[in-house]
Amino acid sequence: MTVSPPRPKGPPLNALRAFEAAARLNGFSNAAEELCVTPGAIAQHIKSLEAWAGSDLFVRQSQGVRLTPLGAGVIEDFSNAFDKLGEAVQNLRLRAAPKHIRIAALPSVAQLWLSPRLPEIRREIADITVSITAMETAPNLLREPYDLSIFFEDHPLLPEGIEICRDSIFPVCTAELAKELNNPSDLINFPLIQDTSWSEDWKYWTEANYPDQKIKLEGPVFSLYSLALEETRNSAGILIGHEPLVRRLLDLGELVAPLPGALPLKRSLMARIAKPATKNQALKKIMAVLLGSDKPKPQA
Amino acid sequence: MTVSPPRPKGPPLNALRAFEAAARLNGFSNAAEELCVTPGAIAQHIKSLEAWAGSDLFVRQSQGVRLTPLGAGVIEDFSNAFDKLGEAVQNLRLRAAPKHIRIAALPSVAQLWLSPRLPEIRREIADITVSITAMETAPNLLREPYDLSIFFEDHPLLPEGIEICRDSIFPVCTAELAKELNNPSDLINFPLIQDTSWSEDWKYWTEANYPDQKIKLEGPVFSLYSLALEETRNSAGILIGHEPLVRRLLDLGELVAPLPGALPLKRSLMARIAKPATKNQALKKIMAVLLGSDKPKPQA
DNA sequence: TATTAGGCCTAGGAAAACTATGGCATCATA
DNA sequence: TATGATGCCATAGTTTTCCTAGGCCTAATA
Fold first, then answer.
1. Residue A96 contacts residue B53 (beta carbons within 8 Å)
2. Which residues of B touch A93 (CB under 8 A)?
3. A120 touches chain B (CB under 8 A)
4. B195 CA from C18 C1′ (Å)
5. Domains of chain B
6. Distance (Å, rounded) from C-alpha B104 to C-alpha B148?
7. pLDDT tens digits for B14-67?
8. In which element (H, E) is residue B74 found?
9. Which residues contact A156 (CB under 8 A, 6 or more apart)?
10. Is Transcription regulation included in the keywords of this UniProt record (chains A, B) (predicted)?
């Protein structure tokens, strides 16, 4: 029954954002990563918010946290509110610089698929700036400042996003090596190059095409697909190639596909457009170029 | 056409809030007041946001600011987003402490109308805490941490909020002074007490009831109605009384209304409930007490 | 029994936010 | 034409907030 003089303040906005991220991503560490801070910072924000509210939002367990009923009861509102806010920010950014389009893509996609298409974009669309940011995981387009994301995505039950092209895998190497590679059993004689993030590729491909064939699934491993590709061009071995990423070198004749049997994966190169960007003229043109440019030449 | 390494960050949340407030309230100074900071702080926030976006949001004029087309184009999104966020915070606060109800009211209302009703609330509703914050202007219940606001509001075209009772004005004084006050012309012999924020009251009342009567519209002025009322009880003069605020002293017999002619104003004491609080049990009971307590004894 | 993953705490330092002050331009008033 | 009031800007200095670092704890895993 107090009659307090100063207008009481709400909680700090940053604490709310930390709470929302921690709840959505299921842990302080994940939230910390998204917000580019240390987990300790998240813990402090959330503690201050809990102090403000007067009760706990998370149950701390030895490994990970769990929302309390109170936390679970309010998180949806916060997520929606921050989505709206993120959308408003996206809208502001895009309206302020409608000729500046920001694209987020997997490093390999940025370098091997997107980069070769930039000259055409520049040619087609005058007076435009395109920024490309390479990252391992797709950004949340409701929150992060990108207009377009291009990533490989496993096929969901219900299609969403814009499919650019289906992913499929098959071995590739230089013409030089291909001469000594006449049937699958010859693979045993070469280093089999692979990418860390797609370490099952060789297994999938051999199982699908030559289930009886035993193949040593060892060889150089690269964390950057473009490095793996470069090594392959240096005849360092046979790479398990992803069609959208190797097509250009095949077309140029710098690499060949020595063995038949391309394996289509339940995964595609997908584009997603931030909602406020859907009406942007520059982006529409970019999409037209990117989608038009993709006339797959089936391999195998 | 850059390929930048670190994930670019969005703008600081506090800058967004400053922008939203400045746009909504039409000026940096007003925003500063709402956010309890100096205008300079707002100016800096907005400048940083403009720097982030790369273009101006406000046109600075010698007296006041005006939104640029860009600013005008995005402000609605921001306002909606912050409304949502405010609602989420309200919801959190209320769920965290469902037995703690916060009421905002005009100082005079808090002291003269609300305060006498608190004992009944305490009696009716066990286990509850009521905080009352007195303020001159009604809080934005979507943003500020109150569950209920009680203020005088002029009648709008379309009714909104919950009407507690109509405001009407008429002179009041002690029985002692009333003896010497038998007709309106006697008013000239007494100091006419008034409140700063309702400085037209005496004029309205005399014009409505005794248009031919000339009255000296001068006398002690108080910025707190409860002070004016206290002085009236000390027989310092005649107060132009607001029915909801003086009724109790009339009922107690400590003051009387010496002259006929209560003037109903196009204004009522109105309650407003924050949206997340509408479902709160404690608040429902409080509203029942407050509305039930008001059985006006018409004066004349 | 190590190891790891995830979170907590505290101290100290970095960054952000805010205040204070002086200045300028416009408008209304005297 | 002074004069004051309003409203914003710029800068410097201060306060507050935020963040990191590093040590500690617990439970699950190998």
1. yes
2. 53
3. no
4. 36
5. 13-84 (1.10.10.10), 94-165+267-292 (3.40.190.10), 166-265 (3.40.190.10)
6. 6
7. 999 999 999 999 989 989 988 889 888 999 999 999 999 989 999 988 778 899
8. helix B69-96
9. none
10. yes
